[in-house]
């Protein structure tokens, strides 16, 4: 009998202990669908957060910030004292939410969840060029050597799903079919090998009805051809690397090239280590200084062609 009473007492204490350890958690239809502990809105629709049944409730919110730890205060939401809380994509994006519950002698808080709206991010495109095969003309236009290629990537591949790529600025967007569309190009990457004006239209994977156009101001124009800098940058031309004088080297401001017997150089191009043409001159005389003071410190290649068509390739250091 005594053993039975001790067992019942321990069981009763265990039940009280479980009761005292109330552990609220937040659930909702979209919580964790894309990212753990996040509700991601597609637009201004609503989402209902809920927790288990307890005696009383108070919901709180905290504004998101880049700062770690988050120093924004948690504030009690007026009137949010029920088992559920309805939030919306218009007012509650970029806020954290939690609930405090009381049940008997137990008071506890849930872990925080976040309401996010990453699906609103505007599209962006990254262009990758092969060093030595292109010339930046500014304002999104480039000369590219024939036979080379340029890779375009959606900067947010995890956000967007189906893409529509264009080779010119379209007059109409999907679902209409436009002659500028590149047939079969629907991934988040496109490799261009011909002249055109490139960009895309894409729909978000998480919110398939939400689509964005890159915007014609962000399209990139490519002109493929056999430009002078292309022949200078290949090994197919004749080079006299050891016979051309470059001085002073290193230099911080002025650079001199050549010899008196050459008199003039038809063309001079300075290329940085990424392959970008950063300075060009034509009709250069051997005794004229080349001002490189505006170049950033580093290693460069200088390609030059004399009046007889001989090409030279030399390296110099900008200090």
UniProtKB/TrEMBL annotation:
Keywords: Signal. Residues 246-317 form the Secretion system C-terminal sorting domain. It comes from the Bacteria. Residues 1-20 form the signal peptide. Pfam families: Por_Secre_tail (PF18962). This is T9SS type A sorting domain-containing protein. It comes from Chryseobacterium antibioticum.
């Amino acid at each position: 009998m005594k053993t039975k009473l001790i067992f019942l007492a321990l069981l009763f204490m265990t039940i009280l202990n479980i009761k005292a350890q109330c552990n609220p958690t937040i659930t909702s239809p979209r919580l964790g669908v894309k990212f753990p502990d996040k509700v991601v809105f597609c637009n201004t629709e609503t989402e209902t957060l809920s927790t288990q049944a307890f005696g009383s409730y108070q919901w709180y919110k905290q504004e998101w910030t880049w700062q770690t730890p988050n120093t924004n205060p948690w504030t009690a939401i007026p009137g949010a004292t029920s088992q559920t809380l309805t939030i919306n994509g218009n007012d509650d994006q970029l806020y954290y939410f939690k609930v405090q519950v009381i049940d008997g002698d137990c008071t506890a808080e849930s872990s925080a969840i976040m309401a996010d709206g990453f699906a609103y991010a505007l599209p962006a495109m990254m262009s990758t060029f092969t060093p030595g095969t292109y010339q930046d003309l500014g304002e999104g236009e480039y000369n590219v050597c024939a036979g080379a290629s340029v890779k375009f990537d959606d900067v947010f591949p995890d956000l967007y799903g189906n893409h529509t790529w264009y080779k010119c600025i379209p007059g109409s967007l999907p679902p209409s079919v436009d002659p500028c569309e590149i047939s079969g190009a629907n991934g988040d990457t496109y490799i261009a090998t011909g002249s055109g004006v490139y960009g895309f239209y894409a729909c978000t994977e998480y919110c398939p009805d939400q689509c964005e156009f890159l915007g014609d101001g962000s399209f990139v124009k490519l002109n493929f051809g056999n430009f002078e800098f292309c022949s200078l940058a290949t090994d197919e031309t004749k080079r006299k690397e050891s016979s051309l004088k470059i001085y002073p080297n290193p230099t911080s401001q002025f650079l001199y090239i050549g010899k008196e017997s050459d008199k003039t150089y038809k063309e001079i191009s300075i290329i940085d280590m990424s392959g970008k043409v950063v300075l060009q001159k034509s009709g250069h005389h051997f005794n004229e200084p080349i001002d490189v003071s505006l170049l950033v410190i580093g290693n460069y290649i200088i390609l030059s062609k004399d009046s007889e068509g001989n090409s030279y390739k030399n390296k110099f250091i900008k200090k």
